[in-house]
Amino acid sequence: MKRGFGGVVVLIIDEVLDDFSVSILESSVEDILWNKLSNKYDDSNNICFCVCYLPPEGSSRLNDGEKFYNDLLQQVYCYQNEGFVYIGGDVNSRCGSEQDYIQGVDDINDREIIDVFSNKYGDLLIDFLTSCNLCMLNGRSDGNNDFTCVSKRGRSVVDYVFAPHEQLDMCTSCDLYLLSDLIVDTGLNFEKSIPDHGPIVWIVNVKKDIAYDTSNIGQSPYTDQIKWQNK
């Protein structure tokens, strides 16, 4: 029996639409979907987020890791001025102990590494990140760091969230959850097998302009927290 493969989809909770309008920026490349959240009160606080999927090496589904990351790199260059950029997804790339920035040049803190194994896609991912000054939130932002995929074949980190270096201080937390823990904590019930991949939840602070919010006239600017969940 053939296994199904992943894809990409975006779900947005209603309350986000109170402050943002949503549009699709680009969906021309299979398994890479760019979306834009346009702030209704301050267009300097727009958010561009991308969800993506790269099938594993050696899968029966045709895939080209080099083309995937080249396409993604060109899209980052295209949309980096449209708003704050975040990328999340399952890219089946294991980076081992390689750092995701240029040491001695980039001024960011090291990430906590829990998956010490690497593969070819991991090398391509590191090249992609250092080429466009993005870095992983996994193991770097405050929060729970863990493996993202647990199966009979072992444990690995293949799901990530990426952000530009200068946006790290906007991310207040990034939590990775094992589904086995969520089942115990929440009582989730799966009719068939338990999925291999767990969710990643990261929280971003977005500053709103009080000039467009009459309920806060005369008060200091405040910050909205937006929670993202990447599965």
Rg over CA atoms: 18 Å
H and E order: EEEHEHEEEEEHEE
Average per-residue pLDDT, rounded, comes to 85
pLDDT < 50 runs, ≥5 residues: 209-223
Organism: Mytilus edulis (Blue mussel)
Protein name: Endonuclease/exonuclease/phosphatase domain-containing protein
InterPro entries: Endo/exonu/phosph_ase_sf (IPR036691)
Q: What's this entry about, in short?
A:
InterPro entries: Endo/exonu/phosph_ase_sf (IPR036691). The chain has 231 residues and is α+β, with helices and mostly antiparallel strands.
Overview of the molecule:
InterPro entries: Endo/exonu/phosph_ase_sf. This is Endonuclease/exonuclease/phosphatase domain-containing protein. With 231 residues, the chain is α+β, with helices and mostly antiparallel strands. Helix content is 16%, strand content 29%. It contains three helices and eleven strands, in the order βββαβαβββββαββ. The protein has helices at 65-79, 120-132, 179-186; strands spanning 20-26, 32-39, 47-53, 84-90, 134-136, 149-151, 154-156, 159-164, 171-176, 200-207, 223-230. The chain is globular, with a radius of gyration of 18 Å. Residues 209-223 have low confidence and may be disordered.
Key traits:
231 residues; 6-stranded mixed sheet
Secondary-structure blueprint of this entry?
Layout (H helix, E strand, L loop, with lengths): L19 E7 L5 E8 L7 E7 L11 H15 L4 E7 L29 H13 L1 E3 L12 E3 L2 E3 L2 E6 L6 E6 L2 H8 L13 E8 L15 E8 L1
Helix pairs in contact: 1-2
